[in-house]
TrEMBL record:
It comes from Microbacterium lacus. This is Carbamoyl phosphate synthase small chain. It comes from the Bacteria. Pathway: Amino-acid biosynthesis; L-arginine biosynthesis; carbamoyl phosphate from bicarbonate: step 1/1; Pyrimidine metabolism; UMP biosynthesis via de novo pathway; (S)-dihydroorotate from bicarbonate: step 1/3. Belongs to the CarA family. Residues 1-182 are annotated as: CPSase. It catalyses: L-glutamine + H2O = L-glutamate + NH4(+); hydrogencarbonate + L-glutamine + 2 ATP + H2O = carbamoyl phosphate + L-glutamate + 2 ADP + phosphate + 2 H(+). Small subunit of the glutamine-dependent carbamoyl phosphate synthetase (CPSase). CPSase catalyzes the formation of carbamoyl phosphate from the ammonia moiety of glutamine, carbonate, and phosphate donated by ATP, constituting the first step of 2 biosynthetic pathways, one leading to arginine and/or urea and the other to pyrimidine nucleotides. The small subunit (glutamine amidotransferase) binds and cleaves glutamine to supply the large subunit with the substrate ammonia. Keywords: Amino-acid biosynthesis, Arginine biosynthesis, ATP-binding, Glutamine amidotransferase, Ligase, Nucleotide-binding, Pyrimidine biosynthesis. It holds the Pfam family CPSase_sm_chain. It is an enzyme of class 6 (ligase). Composed of two chains; the small (or glutamine) chain promotes the hydrolysis of glutamine to ammonia, which is used by the large (or ammonia) chain to synthesize carbamoyl phosphate. Tetramer of heterodimers (alpha,beta)4. The active site is at C261 (nucleophile), H353, E355. The keyword ATP-binding applies.
Length: 388
Protein backbone atom coordinates (compact mmCIF):
# COMPACT_ATOMS: atom_id res chain seq x y z
CA UNK A 1 0.00 0.00 0.00
CA UNK A 2 1.09 3.57 -0.65
CA UNK A 3 0.47 4.46 2.99
CA UNK A 4 3.30 2.15 4.00
CA UNK A 5 5.84 4.04 1.89
CA UNK A 6 7.97 6.78 3.33
CA UNK A 7 8.29 9.13 0.37
CA UNK A 8 9.19 12.58 1.69
CA UNK A 9 6.98 15.65 1.45
CA UNK A 10 7.25 19.24 2.61
CA UNK A 11 4.66 21.96 3.15
CA UNK A 12 5.98 25.45 2.41
CA UNK A 13 4.02 28.60 3.30
CA UNK A 14 4.58 31.93 1.61
CA UNK A 15 6.11 33.42 4.77
CA UNK A 16 8.87 30.79 4.65
CA UNK A 17 7.40 28.41 7.23
CA UNK A 18 8.28 24.78 6.42
CA UNK A 19 6.89 21.48 7.72
CA UNK A 20 8.48 18.15 6.80
CA UNK A 21 6.23 15.10 6.51
CA UNK A 22 5.32 12.11 4.37
CA UNK A 23 3.79 12.00 0.92
CA UNK A 24 0.05 11.28 0.83
CA UNK A 25 -2.00 10.85 -2.34
CA UNK A 26 -0.41 11.78 -5.65
CA UNK A 27 3.25 12.78 -5.88
CA UNK A 28 4.39 16.10 -7.26
CA UNK A 29 3.66 19.75 -6.44
CA UNK A 30 0.40 21.41 -5.45
CA UNK A 31 -0.11 25.14 -4.98
CA UNK A 32 -3.01 27.04 -3.46
CA UNK A 33 -4.35 29.00 -0.51
CA UNK A 34 -3.81 27.00 2.68
CA UNK A 35 -6.98 26.89 4.79
CA UNK A 36 -8.21 24.71 7.64
CA UNK A 37 -11.53 22.84 7.96
CA UNK A 38 -12.76 21.98 11.45
CA UNK A 39 -15.20 19.17 10.67
CA UNK A 40 -14.72 15.97 12.66
CA UNK A 41 -16.52 13.96 9.96
CA UNK A 42 -17.48 14.30 6.32
CA UNK A 43 -14.07 14.51 4.67
CA UNK A 44 -15.47 13.03 1.44
CA UNK A 45 -18.03 15.83 1.18
CA UNK A 46 -15.32 18.39 1.93
CA UNK A 47 -12.98 17.05 -0.72
CA UNK A 48 -15.70 16.99 -3.40
CA UNK A 49 -17.11 20.44 -2.57
CA UNK A 50 -16.27 22.68 -5.58
CA UNK A 51 -15.98 25.67 -3.22
CA UNK A 52 -12.53 24.35 -2.24
CA UNK A 53 -11.09 24.72 -5.75
CA UNK A 54 -7.77 26.54 -5.57
CA UNK A 55 -7.27 25.73 -1.88
CA UNK A 56 -5.00 23.37 0.01
CA UNK A 57 -7.22 22.04 2.79
CA UNK A 58 -5.89 21.12 6.22
CA UNK A 59 -8.11 18.85 8.33
CA UNK A 60 -7.95 19.80 12.00
CA UNK A 61 -9.37 16.39 12.96
CA UNK A 62 -6.23 14.26 13.47
CA UNK A 63 -7.39 10.89 12.08
CA UNK A 64 -8.64 10.93 8.49
CA UNK A 65 -9.56 8.21 6.01
CA UNK A 66 -10.89 5.44 8.24
CA UNK A 67 -14.23 5.17 6.35
CA UNK A 68 -12.64 5.31 2.90
CA UNK A 69 -14.45 6.75 -0.11
CA UNK A 70 -17.70 5.56 -1.68
CA UNK A 71 -19.75 6.26 -4.78
CA UNK A 72 -22.84 7.58 -2.98
CA UNK A 73 -21.56 10.54 -0.95
CA UNK A 74 -19.58 12.76 -3.34
CA UNK A 75 -20.95 16.29 -3.74
CA UNK A 76 -19.71 16.67 -7.31
CA UNK A 77 -17.98 14.83 -10.13
CA UNK A 78 -14.45 14.89 -8.64
CA UNK A 79 -12.18 15.97 -5.80
CA UNK A 80 -11.62 19.73 -6.07
CA UNK A 81 -9.10 20.61 -3.38
CA UNK A 82 -5.75 21.76 -4.73
CA UNK A 83 -3.91 19.83 -2.03
CA UNK A 84 -4.61 17.96 1.21
CA UNK A 85 -2.98 18.08 4.66
CA UNK A 86 -3.67 15.47 7.34
CA UNK A 87 -1.91 14.41 10.49
CA UNK A 88 -2.64 10.67 10.78
CA UNK A 89 -4.07 8.96 7.69
CA UNK A 90 -5.83 5.68 8.40
CA UNK A 91 -3.83 2.61 7.41
CA UNK A 92 -6.97 0.57 6.71
CA UNK A 93 -10.51 1.25 5.51
CA UNK A 94 -13.17 0.12 7.97
CA UNK A 95 -16.60 0.74 6.46
CA UNK A 96 -18.88 -1.57 4.50
CA UNK A 97 -19.87 1.25 2.13
CA UNK A 98 -16.30 2.02 1.05
CA UNK A 99 -15.32 1.47 -2.58
CA UNK A 100 -11.70 2.58 -2.25
CA UNK A 101 -9.29 4.15 0.20
CA UNK A 102 -8.95 7.91 0.51
CA UNK A 103 -5.30 7.61 -0.51
CA UNK A 104 -6.26 5.84 -3.74
CA UNK A 105 -8.96 8.45 -4.49
CA UNK A 106 -6.44 11.26 -4.07
CA UNK A 107 -4.06 9.49 -6.43
CA UNK A 108 -6.84 8.91 -9.00
CA UNK A 109 -7.72 12.62 -9.09
CA UNK A 110 -4.09 13.76 -9.00
CA UNK A 111 -4.34 15.49 -5.62
CA UNK A 112 -0.96 15.97 -3.91
CA UNK A 113 -1.10 15.68 -0.12
CA UNK A 114 1.08 15.51 2.94
CA UNK A 115 0.71 13.61 6.22
CA UNK A 116 2.57 13.18 9.47
CA UNK A 117 2.92 16.86 10.33
CA UNK A 118 1.70 18.97 13.24
CA UNK A 119 -1.64 20.19 11.88
CA UNK A 120 -2.45 21.94 15.16
CA UNK A 121 0.66 24.12 14.86
CA UNK A 122 -0.21 25.07 11.27
CA UNK A 123 -3.80 25.89 12.24
CA UNK A 124 -2.64 28.14 15.07
CA UNK A 125 -0.20 29.85 12.71
CA UNK A 126 -2.92 30.53 10.11
CA UNK A 127 -5.30 31.80 12.78
CA UNK A 128 -2.64 34.32 13.81
CA UNK A 129 -1.12 35.26 10.46
CA UNK A 130 -4.16 34.62 8.22
CA UNK A 131 -4.68 32.27 5.29
CA UNK A 132 -1.76 32.36 2.89
CA UNK A 133 -0.42 30.73 -0.21
CA UNK A 134 1.35 27.43 0.20
CA UNK A 135 2.78 24.52 -1.67
CA UNK A 136 3.08 20.80 -1.04
CA UNK A 137 6.17 19.25 -2.62
CA UNK A 138 6.28 15.46 -2.47
CA UNK A 139 8.25 12.61 -3.95
CA UNK A 140 11.09 13.91 -6.12
CA UNK A 141 9.82 17.50 -5.78
CA UNK A 142 10.49 17.37 -2.03
CA UNK A 143 14.22 17.41 -2.84
CA UNK A 144 14.04 20.79 -4.62
CA UNK A 145 16.11 23.53 -3.06
CA UNK A 146 14.23 25.20 -0.20
CA UNK A 147 14.58 28.67 -1.73
CA UNK A 148 13.33 27.38 -5.08
CA UNK A 149 10.27 25.87 -3.38
CA UNK A 150 9.57 29.16 -1.61
CA UNK A 151 9.93 31.10 -4.86
CA UNK A 152 7.43 28.79 -6.54
CA UNK A 153 4.92 29.36 -3.73
CA UNK A 154 5.39 33.13 -3.75
CA UNK A 155 4.86 33.24 -7.52
CA UNK A 156 1.45 31.52 -7.23
CA UNK A 157 -1.69 33.70 -7.59
CA UNK A 158 -3.41 34.98 -4.46
CA UNK A 159 -7.10 34.14 -3.93
CA UNK A 160 -8.21 37.78 -3.96
CA UNK A 161 -9.20 38.78 -7.47
CA UNK A 162 -9.64 35.22 -8.78
CA UNK A 163 -12.76 34.17 -10.67
CA UNK A 164 -12.86 30.36 -10.50
CA UNK A 165 -16.48 29.77 -11.49
CA UNK A 166 -15.67 28.59 -15.01
CA UNK A 167 -13.41 25.85 -13.60
CA UNK A 168 -16.16 24.22 -11.52
CA UNK A 169 -19.41 24.94 -13.40
CA UNK A 170 -21.22 22.50 -15.69
CA UNK A 171 -20.69 22.90 -19.41
CA UNK A 172 -24.33 22.31 -20.37
CA UNK A 173 -27.74 22.45 -18.70
CA UNK A 174 -28.52 19.55 -16.37
CA UNK A 175 -32.10 18.92 -15.19
CA UNK A 176 -33.25 17.11 -12.04
CA UNK A 177 -37.00 16.38 -11.96
CA UNK A 178 -39.18 17.66 -9.14
CA UNK A 179 -40.16 15.28 -6.36
CA UNK A 180 -43.79 15.31 -5.19
CA UNK A 181 -46.07 18.25 -5.92
CA UNK A 182 -44.44 20.35 -8.63
CA UNK A 183 -43.88 24.06 -7.97
CA UNK A 184 -42.18 24.95 -11.27
CA UNK A 185 -38.85 25.34 -13.01
CA UNK A 186 -35.97 26.63 -10.90
CA UNK A 187 -32.92 28.23 -12.53
CA UNK A 188 -29.79 27.30 -10.56
CA UNK A 189 -26.64 29.16 -11.55
CA UNK A 190 -23.86 26.63 -11.02
CA UNK A 191 -20.97 28.46 -9.42
CA UNK A 192 -19.85 25.24 -7.72
CA UNK A 193 -23.13 23.66 -6.62
CA UNK A 194 -23.21 20.60 -4.35
CA UNK A 195 -25.36 17.59 -5.18
CA UNK A 196 -27.11 17.73 -1.81
CA UNK A 197 -28.35 21.23 -2.67
CA UNK A 198 -29.85 20.04 -5.94
CA UNK A 199 -31.62 17.15 -4.19
CA UNK A 200 -32.98 19.40 -1.43
CA UNK A 201 -34.43 21.79 -4.03
CA UNK A 202 -35.95 18.94 -6.05
CA UNK A 203 -37.54 17.53 -2.91
CA UNK A 204 -39.32 20.89 -2.43
CA UNK A 205 -41.11 20.47 -5.77
CA UNK A 206 -38.72 22.37 -8.03
CA UNK A 207 -37.65 21.02 -11.41
CA UNK A 208 -34.02 22.00 -10.99
CA UNK A 209 -32.28 23.37 -14.10
CA UNK A 210 -28.56 23.61 -13.31
CA UNK A 211 -27.18 26.25 -15.67
CA UNK A 212 -23.59 26.98 -16.73
CA UNK A 213 -22.10 30.02 -15.02
CA UNK A 214 -21.91 32.01 -18.26
CA UNK A 215 -25.63 31.95 -19.15
CA UNK A 216 -27.40 35.14 -20.19
CA UNK A 217 -30.60 36.57 -18.75
CA UNK A 218 -32.34 35.57 -21.99
CA UNK A 219 -31.30 31.95 -21.44
CA UNK A 220 -32.58 32.12 -17.87
CA UNK A 221 -35.92 33.53 -19.02
CA UNK A 222 -36.17 30.82 -21.69
CA UNK A 223 -36.81 28.09 -19.12
CA UNK A 224 -39.70 30.14 -17.65
CA UNK A 225 -38.40 29.91 -14.08
CA UNK A 226 -40.53 30.51 -11.02
CA UNK A 227 -37.36 31.54 -9.18
CA UNK A 228 -33.58 31.73 -9.42
CA UNK A 229 -30.97 30.22 -7.12
CA UNK A 230 -27.25 31.04 -6.89
CA UNK A 231 -25.03 28.29 -5.49
CA UNK A 232 -21.89 28.17 -3.42
CA UNK A 233 -18.55 28.32 -5.20
CA UNK A 234 -14.88 29.33 -5.05
CA UNK A 235 -13.17 32.62 -5.76
CA UNK A 236 -13.50 36.31 -4.97
CA UNK A 237 -17.02 37.78 -5.33
CA UNK A 238 -15.45 41.09 -6.35
CA UNK A 239 -14.20 39.34 -9.52
CA UNK A 240 -17.67 38.12 -10.58
CA UNK A 241 -19.14 41.21 -12.20
CA UNK A 242 -21.03 39.25 -14.87
CA UNK A 243 -22.82 37.17 -12.23
CA UNK A 244 -23.78 40.33 -10.37
CA UNK A 245 -25.16 41.90 -13.57
CA UNK A 246 -27.17 38.75 -14.26
CA UNK A 247 -28.58 38.78 -10.74
CA UNK A 248 -29.59 42.43 -11.05
CA UNK A 249 -31.53 41.52 -14.19
CA UNK A 250 -33.20 38.68 -12.25
CA UNK A 251 -34.18 41.07 -9.46
CA UNK A 252 -35.42 43.62 -12.02
CA UNK A 253 -37.67 40.89 -13.47
CA UNK A 254 -39.22 40.41 -10.02
CA UNK A 255 -38.18 36.77 -9.80
CA UNK A 256 -37.76 35.32 -6.29
CA UNK A 257 -34.13 34.67 -5.41
CA UNK A 258 -32.27 32.50 -2.92
CA UNK A 259 -28.48 32.35 -2.67
CA UNK A 260 -26.11 30.42 -0.45
CA UNK A 261 -22.45 31.05 0.36
CA UNK A 262 -21.00 32.63 -2.81
CA UNK A 263 -24.59 33.40 -3.79
CA UNK A 264 -24.98 35.42 -0.58
CA UNK A 265 -21.94 37.52 -1.44
CA UNK A 266 -23.24 38.11 -4.97
CA UNK A 267 -26.66 39.16 -3.67
CA UNK A 268 -24.87 41.63 -1.44
CA UNK A 269 -23.02 43.06 -4.43
CA UNK A 270 -26.22 43.16 -6.53
CA UNK A 271 -27.92 45.13 -3.76
CA UNK A 272 -24.98 47.57 -3.81
CA UNK A 273 -22.95 46.32 -0.85
CA UNK A 274 -19.23 45.60 -0.69
CA UNK A 275 -17.37 42.41 0.17
CA UNK A 276 -14.05 41.77 1.88
CA UNK A 277 -11.66 38.92 2.57
CA UNK A 278 -11.72 37.30 5.99
CA UNK A 279 -8.39 36.68 7.78
CA UNK A 280 -8.74 32.89 7.76
CA UNK A 281 -12.36 32.27 6.78
CA UNK A 282 -14.99 29.92 8.14
CA UNK A 283 -14.68 26.26 7.18
CA UNK A 284 -16.22 23.36 9.02
CA UNK A 285 -19.52 21.99 10.33
CA UNK A 286 -19.65 23.57 13.79
CA UNK A 287 -20.18 27.33 13.24
CA UNK A 288 -22.81 29.01 15.48
CA UNK A 289 -25.15 31.44 13.70
CA UNK A 290 -28.00 33.54 15.08
CA UNK A 291 -31.22 33.71 13.04
CA UNK A 292 -32.40 37.21 14.03
CA UNK A 293 -35.96 36.50 12.87
CA UNK A 294 -36.50 33.58 15.28
CA UNK A 295 -33.79 34.20 17.88
CA UNK A 296 -32.63 30.65 17.34
CA UNK A 297 -28.95 29.73 17.31
CA UNK A 298 -28.06 27.21 14.62
CA UNK A 299 -24.94 25.09 14.29
CA UNK A 300 -24.06 25.36 10.64
CA UNK A 301 -21.69 24.21 7.91
CA UNK A 302 -19.43 26.83 6.31
CA UNK A 303 -16.85 27.17 3.60
CA UNK A 304 -16.05 30.77 2.75
CA UNK A 305 -13.14 33.15 2.83
CA UNK A 306 -15.03 36.33 1.90
CA UNK A 307 -17.96 38.14 3.52
CA UNK A 308 -20.50 40.91 2.89
CA UNK A 309 -19.96 44.33 4.47
CA UNK A 310 -23.31 45.51 5.88
CA UNK A 311 -24.71 47.04 9.10
CA UNK A 312 -25.75 44.28 11.51
CA UNK A 313 -28.66 46.07 13.19
CA UNK A 314 -31.81 47.54 11.73
CA UNK A 315 -32.75 47.89 8.08
CA UNK A 316 -31.07 50.03 5.45
CA UNK A 317 -31.80 51.10 1.89
CA UNK A 318 -30.21 49.14 -0.95
CA UNK A 319 -27.66 51.44 -2.63
CA UNK A 320 -28.78 49.99 -5.98
CA UNK A 321 -32.46 50.79 -5.48
CA UNK A 322 -33.98 47.48 -4.40
CA UNK A 323 -35.70 48.85 -1.31
CA UNK A 324 -35.03 48.01 2.29
CA UNK A 325 -32.58 45.27 3.33
CA UNK A 326 -31.60 43.75 6.65
CA UNK A 327 -28.94 41.37 7.88
CA UNK A 328 -30.92 38.25 8.78
CA UNK A 329 -28.19 36.04 10.28
CA UNK A 330 -25.04 36.85 12.25
CA UNK A 331 -22.02 34.63 13.01
CA UNK A 332 -21.61 34.43 16.76
CA UNK A 333 -17.86 33.75 16.72
CA UNK A 334 -16.85 36.99 15.01
CA UNK A 335 -20.05 38.95 14.18
CA UNK A 336 -19.74 38.35 10.43
CA UNK A 337 -22.78 38.84 8.18
CA UNK A 338 -24.24 35.36 7.61
CA UNK A 339 -27.45 36.23 5.79
CA UNK A 340 -29.35 38.98 3.96
CA UNK A 341 -33.06 39.54 3.53
CA UNK A 342 -34.64 42.04 1.16
CA UNK A 343 -37.81 43.50 2.68
CA UNK A 344 -39.41 44.94 -0.46
CA UNK A 345 -38.54 42.29 -3.05
CA UNK A 346 -38.63 38.46 -2.80
CA UNK A 347 -34.92 37.78 -2.20
CA UNK A 348 -32.81 36.38 0.61
CA UNK A 349 -29.53 34.57 1.11
CA UNK A 350 -27.30 32.93 3.70
CA UNK A 351 -23.54 32.65 3.91
CA UNK A 352 -23.53 29.02 5.03
CA UNK A 353 -24.74 25.65 3.71
CA UNK A 354 -28.33 24.65 4.57
CA UNK A 355 -27.91 21.37 2.66
CA UNK A 356 -25.13 20.57 5.16
CA UNK A 357 -23.70 17.40 3.68
CA UNK A 358 -22.33 15.82 5.89
CA UNK A 359 -24.27 17.77 8.55
CA UNK A 360 -25.47 19.40 10.70
CA UNK A 361 -29.06 20.01 9.58
CA UNK A 362 -30.17 22.93 11.77
CA UNK A 363 -30.56 25.21 8.75
CA UNK A 364 -32.40 22.84 6.41
CA UNK A 365 -35.62 24.80 7.03
CA UNK A 366 -34.29 27.50 4.69
CA UNK A 367 -35.27 25.40 1.68
CA UNK A 368 -38.84 25.35 3.03
CA UNK A 369 -38.69 29.12 3.56
CA UNK A 370 -37.61 29.50 -0.07
CA UNK A 371 -40.43 27.27 -1.32
CA UNK A 372 -42.99 29.22 0.72
CA UNK A 373 -41.68 32.52 -0.70
CA UNK A 374 -41.93 31.23 -4.27
CA UNK A 375 -45.47 29.90 -3.80
CA UNK A 376 -46.59 33.18 -2.21
CA UNK A 377 -45.06 35.08 -5.14
CA UNK A 378 -46.88 32.86 -7.64
CA UNK A 379 -50.18 33.41 -5.85
CA UNK A 380 -49.66 37.18 -5.87
CA UNK A 381 -48.87 37.16 -9.58
CA UNK A 382 -52.00 35.10 -10.28
CA UNK A 383 -54.19 37.47 -8.25
CA UNK A 384 -52.74 40.50 -10.01
CA UNK A 385 -53.39 38.90 -13.38
CA UNK A 386 -57.00 38.05 -12.47
CA UNK A 387 -57.61 41.59 -11.22
CA UNK A 388 -56.09 43.24 -14.28
Amino acid sequence: MTLLTHDPAVLVLEDGTRHIGRAYGARGTSLGEVVFATGMTGYQETLTDPSYAGQIVLQTAPHIGNTGMNGEDPESRRIWVAGYIVRDPSRVVSNWRADESLDDALISDGVVGISGIDTRAITRHIRSAGSMRGGIFSGADAALDAQEQLSIVQAAPVMSGQNLSAEVSVGAVEVTPAVGERVGNLAVLDLGVKQATILNLAERGFEVHVLPQDVTIEQVRAIDPVAVFYSNGPGDPAASGDHVALLRAVLDDGLPFFGICFGNQLLGRALGLGTYKLPFGHRGINQPVLDKQTGRVEITAHNHGFAVDAPLEGSFDSPNGYGRVEVSHIGLNDRVVEGLRALDIPAFSVQYHPEAAAGPHDANYLFDRFRDMVIANLQTRTENTNNA
